[in-house]
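[step 3/7] fold_predict: job queued, chain A
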Amino acid sequence: MEHTPPSDSCRCHTSIRLILEESGRWQVRDLQRVDLNLLVAFDALMAERSVTRAAERMSVGQPAMSASLARLRKLFDDPLLVRDGRVFVPTPVAESLTGPIRQSLSIMEGALGRRRTFDPAVDQQTFTLLASDYVLLVLLRSLLSELAAEAPNVRINVRPISGDYADQLRRGQIDLFIVPREIERSGAPLLSEDLFQDRLVCAIDIDHPEIGETISREQFETLPYLAYDGGPLPSAAQLQLRARGVDRAIDVTTQSFVVAPLMLRGTRFLTLLHERLGRGLAAQAQIRLLEPPVELTSITEAMFWSPRHQDSPAHHWLRERIRQAAAALDT
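[step 4/7] structure written:
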């Protein structure tokens, strides 16, 4: 006899029923009085650990999210989120529910995504991206301006890269992240697409007293060095220098790619900077860009997303708009 796999809706119904039964207080008939929107609110609250941020994520008011939390507490007969000092933390019951509820919502999102279209002119949607301030300025700034008119009900949250980025993607807490392909080493089963290339150049004060039209390797290795060190991933600059045997001592670090060129004015410092960023800020920061004295390879910025988002019309639209913004960089 041929085996017919269960439909997405059946799998979701079964998963939610199991969630409720695990509490030991529920029977199957209780599923009829569960508002699925509450499970979406639960997922947002557990991801954000904040009523305010969860409300922003779902594009609702804070009072509405507070009301959802109150209903969830009654539904599961548990506080779910409790204050620990200045932050909220999930209770053991909430932690035990987070995975199953996320899985159930993923099934529903996949099922609905195959049957719906997405109209950015009228539909409401919130996307969360992880990206550096360099990507935000060079790639996303103009796109966000365009989307304000093109998609008035779409909210895009851009956050810095964090160490658990792959896990956040798996749990559905973010929609995609953009990092250099050369440094993405999570090993997670992700889909990806190259967006644009950049390269590293030396940046110095426009009136640097010791450097002329070129910079020697000795100067590169001995002058005070400003380096980016603002995230859990190694910087492309440091990886490339190590690969070429350049043991460059670091005198000052910054947690921002964009701030680095602004710190050079009136100093003897040099830094390695993305050329696109350097050209965009050269006049404002009053810096000069020079060829490095060692050969460095290009950097490929890529976007990564979970396979479960592949067929979502809304996610497909977002990826296409990012793809178009990247293509426009070289026009």
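[step 5/7] annotate
The CA atoms of residues 240 and 288 lie 22 Å apart.
The longest strand covers residues 191-198.
exit 0
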